[in-house]
């Protein structure tokens, strides 16, 4: 049994996408799992394409993420139009194209992710591998390194271990056996010293004030809690506070809300048992902003301009306590037409393939008929050859019969009795005999006749009467 699953034939299809004439850009919404996955994909592509870069759509402010970038020397740049123009093809890791507005501006050739799929937003790319049962995307990328026979270096192995550690909450959130195998496999080459330095860089001194606000503004909501922090320089502070509250025994799930970069951000954390927070976030906020995630962790973001004049804390509270239905997705007409055009294009391509298949079938039938014709002609020639062979055999039999009859005649002649020598004398020689001999013969004949006449006649017997 293999340590990880076999990736063929998909892996070969992915490798065919790489060309030494093209530059690739790996795009991430930077967090430990995404950055580690990008490092792994870059390692896979580095010797197969002209160049590989990594770009982020967000600002990195969390101390542990900054420490990870610094200690593991992760080269990243901000995604801008200028950066985009420098690359030919794009890959996305630990996310899906509909997860961020900037992703929608790019056509991705590769997508690797472990987040839940969306029926309303299918992922359509040249190659994708989305394993929703995996606890971390770093686990997925470890499988690709293993199948390609690439042993991760010290920094890459450390990054992947930290990515698995953070996304599984040190295996306190949802994970599977493959996550454990990947963690154990990578631990052989990772650095425990670097992991310790990164993981201990969790808080900033200025964040302690946000903790104070969060504790003082907590509201009970059924089995969970809501706390509103107010304006923060970065939403990472809300994530750290939400993770902190999940260490409290009595809290099953918590929503930490705040304002960052002209958006209302709500961070959800839970035990994954009480409710599915990804589905819950989408149901409560999906009609007005972007929302979704896993059972134990989720996020919602709503532009402030849509909430003008509202008390943000009360707005979030009412949304959380009000039962809502899954939001209906309203698709713009131009996108509908674009989808129809693409569907027609696919339909035309399918028809073309069908025509090609029919043509191939016709050619195959023609070839089959030609083969049959050739077989028939070969059989005819074979029959004629057999007929000629039979005639030759018949001729041989007749010749043999003639030979046998000749031999029989010869044997009969041989077995016949010999005739007197004079009988064999040719008539020609008799004709050439001298005349005196003929006269002597005549005299002999006369003498014989005279003697016959001189003999007395036999006495006649008296008549018995």
Describe the structure.
The chain has 465 residues and is of the alpha/beta class. Helix 5 crosses helix 7, helix 6 runs antiparallel to helix 7 and helix 6 crosses helix 8. The strands form two sheets. Strands 3-2-1-4-5-6 form a six-stranded parallel sheet. Strand 7 and strand 8 form a beta hairpin. The protein is built from 15 helices and twelve strands.
Short description:
By secondary structure, the protein is of the alpha/beta class. The chain has 15 helices and 12 strands.
What fraction strand? 5-15%
- Separation of the first and last Cα atoms: 145 Å
Mean pLDDT: 86
Q: Any idea what the radius of gyration is? A: 55 Å
Give the topology string: H per helix, E per strand.
Answer: HEHEHEHEEEHHHHHEEHEEHEEHHHH
Q: Uncertain runs with pLDDT below 50, 5 residues or more?
A: 327-331, 459-465
Topology:
Layout: H1 10-15, E1 23-28, H2 32-45, E2 51-56, H3 63-72, E3 77-78, H4 81-84, E4 89-93, E5 108-113, E6 127-130, H5 137-147, H6 154-167, H7 177-187, H8 192-199, H9 208-216, E7 218-221, E8 224-231, H10 236-245, E9 253-260, E10 263-270, H11 277-285, E11 290-293, E12 297-303, H12 312-321, H13 333-415, H14 427-431, H15 435-454
Parallel strand pairs: 1-2, 1-4, 2-3, 4-5, 5-6, 8-9
Antiparallel strand pairs: 7-8, 9-10, 10-12, 11-12
Helix pairs in contact: 2-5, 2-6, 3-8, 5-6, 5-7, 6-7, 6-8
